[in-house]
Structure to design on (272 residues):
């Protein structure tokens, strides 16, 4: 087993575990309320970090890789930019056509110990799970594609994705519970999300390069996906949950600052 494979297995498993833990904090009730209070700050931190990773790492690296793999048409960036746009639109289509849009954790209005009253239909909850499976699969592809460039980029992308995995698990868990389900169904739903992330990592590692779907093609698509998640998913959720609180907005800036700090530390440790 190569070091890259071991790194990807570790990243994939940790991301998957974060999805499951996000659902587990719904039980017991006291932990659920504590996490829900902190959710908006974690969400804002993750949004800032992911936005910075996308703009300063993924998209520039995608353009550079495309130029290196197509030296005859190095100035023509129409294809990679179309792939970025395609990744963005694919995520928009999945989340707003296949799966209903929802706000993080807002489906939980009933008493946590009473699941007899359905606030949303079971089909709506499971449709949301199905839609997010596509999203989480591309989370895994993003981690694998970035990691095949170098360790630093892979680690930065992993951190960005990892930070929003807890809120993601919490969200889908709250929807399943709002549909009248219990711990078992929440664990099944969040585990599916986690396994799909891991599957995305493994599929790209084992199949992507062998089918000609190289990093030069995968990274722009992943960039479009992460751009959508950061700018069109997470930032609106931050605005919705943060209200007029300056601390939530400052948490977005803290996420960007955390990116640059992590970038500098990795540069000092790993070089390049």
């Amino acid at each position: 087993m190569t070091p890259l494979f071991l790194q990807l297995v570790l990243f994939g498993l940790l991301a998957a575990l974060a999805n499951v833990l996000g659902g587990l904090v719904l039980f017991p009730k006291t932990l659920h309320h504590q996490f829900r209070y902190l959710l908006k700050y974690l969400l804002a931190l993750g949004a800032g970090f992911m936005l910075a990773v996308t703009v300063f790492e993924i998209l520039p690296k995608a353009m550079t890789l495309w130029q290196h793999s197509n030296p005859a048409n190095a100035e023509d960036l129409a294809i990679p930019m179309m792939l970025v746009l395609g990744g963005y639109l694919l995520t928009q289509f999945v989340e707003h056509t296949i799966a209903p849009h929802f706000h993080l954790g807002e489906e939980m209005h009933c008493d946590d110990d009473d699941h007899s009253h359905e606030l949303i239909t079971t089909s709506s909850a499971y449709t949301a799970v199905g839609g997010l499976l596509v999203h989480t699969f591309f989370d895994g592809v993003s981690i694998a594609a970035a990691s095949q460039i170098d360790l630093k980029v892979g680690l930065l992308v992993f951190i960005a994705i990892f930070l929003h995995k807890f809120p993601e698990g919490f969200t889908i868990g709250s929807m399943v519970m709002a549909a009248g389900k219990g711990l078992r169904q929440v664990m099944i739903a969040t585990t599916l999300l986690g396994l799909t992330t891991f599957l995305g990592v493994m599929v790209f590692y084992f199949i992507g390069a062998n089918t000609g779907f190289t990093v030069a093609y995968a990274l722009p698509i992943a960039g479009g996906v992460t751009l959508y998640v950061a700018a069109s998913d997470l930032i609106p959720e931050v605005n919705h949950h943060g209200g007029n609180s300056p601390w939530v907005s400052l948490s977005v800036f803290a996420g960007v600052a955390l990116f640059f700090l992590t970038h500098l530390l990795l540069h000092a440790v790993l070089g390049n």
In short: The first helix runs from residue 3 to 24. Residues 107-116 have pLDDT under 50 and may be disordered. The chain has one domain: 3-270. The helical segments are 3-24, 29-69, 78-98, 122-147, 151-178, 183-208, 215-242, 246-270.
